[in-house]
Amino acid sequence: MQGRWRLFRHDAGRAAGPPAVVYVLLYAASLAISYWTVARFGTATIWLANGILVAALLQLHRRPAVMVLTACFTLDLFGNSLRGDAGLFLWINALLNFSAAMLAAVLARRVCGAALDLRRPRRLALFALCAVAPASALSALLGMGLLAVVAPTSWPVWLFQLQTYFTMEVLGMLLVTPVLLLLARRHRFQGAAPASRRESFALVAVMLAVTGLVFWQTEAPVQFLVFLPMVLIGLRLSPTWTAGSLVAMATVSGIATLLGYGPVQLTRLVEFAGLEALPPMVRRLGVYNLFLLAMVVTVLPISTVMTERRRLEARLRARTAAAQEARRVAEDAAAARSRFLAMMSHEMRTPLNGVAGFADLLAGRADLDPEAVRQARQIRESSDGLLMLVEDILDFARGEHAVSPEPLDLAAVAREAMGPSRAAADAMGLALTIDDRLPARSRFNCDRRALRQALHPLIANAVKFTTEGGVSIRLDRAGEGVIIRVSDTGCGIEPAHHARLFEAFSQADASTTRLHEGAGLGLALAARHVRRLGGRVEVDSRPGEGSTFTVHLPLTRAPDAAVEPVPAPAPAVAAPESAAGQAAPVEEPSRSPHVLVVDDHPVNREVARIMLQAIGCEVHEACDGREAVQAATARMFDLVLMDVRMPHMDGLEATRRIRALPEAWGAVPVVAMTADAMPEDVARCLAAGMNAHLAKPVSQAALFATVSRALSGDLPAAVEAA
Fold first, then answer.
1. Residue range 178-196: average pLDDT?
2. How large is the C-alpha radius of gyration of the chain?
3. Cα–Cα distance for residue pair 266/223, rounded to 1 Å
4. Which end of the chain is less packed: N or C, by CB atoms within 10 Å?
5. What is residue 540's DSSP assignment?
6. Each residue of 420-465: pLDDT tens digit?
7. SS (H, E, C) 429-465
């Protein structure tokens, strides 16, 4: 983030780094070292004072920063006077130092932002190129320009001194300022370096040993050997350790160089006109400064790049762990929601099975007067409406889920979706028809449940809002897909309401005086299931002209259904032997189908028994899965109606054990008759070896259809139990 043109740290910013007095002491020490090297050896290797001053301006607030500037300026003037500067030069040197430091601080805050986080390679490069280099160049040009006016010299000497001035300023700022800034933010480097403290000290010790061996000899130009431990330090340690190591290396190598040791002394000086008057040490220091500059611009960026990489890796690991945890929480929540919805579906369907079942039985009794039959039918229709509402709410709460395409007869699925609305249509005298214009015996790959749940609310709505005439469902091909139109002759819908018809809990007439009841979920669910199938739904309606809902489905064609031959009668089979080795009782010839009803709820068994007996079945009952297995072992049944949730042994395990019986005893048709009606419940039942699934509440017509399919061998084949 780009900062502002500001010299001092904003007062609202948090103070960082050492107190002001530490900067003053460091400044005094750097001046003393520089003046001593000039007095002892006639030259200075690095000018560190300006780098310390830049760090103070970047870290301190206005008041302590002004105090540091005042104290350091006084120290600079005092040092210049001790060195022998007089008059104008006493002030010029101090002003040049401070102007370079302040300009570098202003530029650094502008280009590096308020954070001044030099761990980032880009910010370190901006600090060097856009702050240090311009400030040092301007200071060198001003200083050497004034010197050329006061004490003219030859151009080669002047250019050499300009290069030396610039190099010392740049090296001083690049060595000291990043170190102090990084030390002030050392808390950000916790865990930034892979090396332990012991390894860190060991690497620094190796680097100092190599530096000493290289620079305390004058036999071989092997200064490149220092790069090896320094690069390793940059790769393994934090930028703070790396910058400190650079300062330590510069201290050891600089002292050795000034004392006349090191590979720099082997430099062969080229005879250049105008430079003969300069001491050889001064001329050789250019090579040494170039060595330090190469070391700084190589090792420090390596350290910042590696630190940034480790920071990004740590952030990636943290975000990956957070994402995995969020995924686990989401999966747990989804599983909990599925369990809750399955439980609610089961608990709501169980009492509805008794209500709807007994209402169905009462409506079919011949000894009741017409009014009682009408009331029983009303109970049945109300329970159907309540079941439909429960299914809509639970299905809406489930959200989107994957589809399972299979070859389907679309007209048959449309008839299934139309079934619950048949009674209401007959009661109102409406014609409810299917116009199947698809090719004969054609099959299309589609999810049965999703298609049924998409068509059912469209048909139910059409019947509900039609008082005379009828409702038609037309199936036709359209290019590579299928079009299903649900048309009615009802009241129609205002065009202004079309846009929100498919929103949840939205109704064209939401007033308290509306004529038709409903929760406003049907069309929203229909649109959702159509989207799951990859299609879209459109509406065409005008008030008084009826409505047409068109479903466009991009379904692929499956192989056509074959004409199935009539199955031959099954041969008689012997019963399996009992545990005592004696043959179990064998079924005697009977025209009445034998049906085993397995349910732990006595009301459900009673409803099923009465319904089955009404169609001529001989009913046997079992209270749980264990009794069901014993009964299936004792005799042959034409059909087993199996509940799922039961004590001692559930219906899934009971089905697996029945399938494990020998020969035809294990091939008895088993149909799940359960309140577990979610898609995953159906899949579990089929995976356990059941032939089909019949959701509660069960109507007498649905039960009769199931028994008929079982006796005719029309039930799907059971899969091998897992």
1. 70
2. 46
3. 11
4. N
5. E
6. 788 788 888 899 999 999 998 899 999 887 898 889 889 988 998 8
7. CCEEEEEECCCCCCEEEECHHHHHHHHHHHHHHHHHC
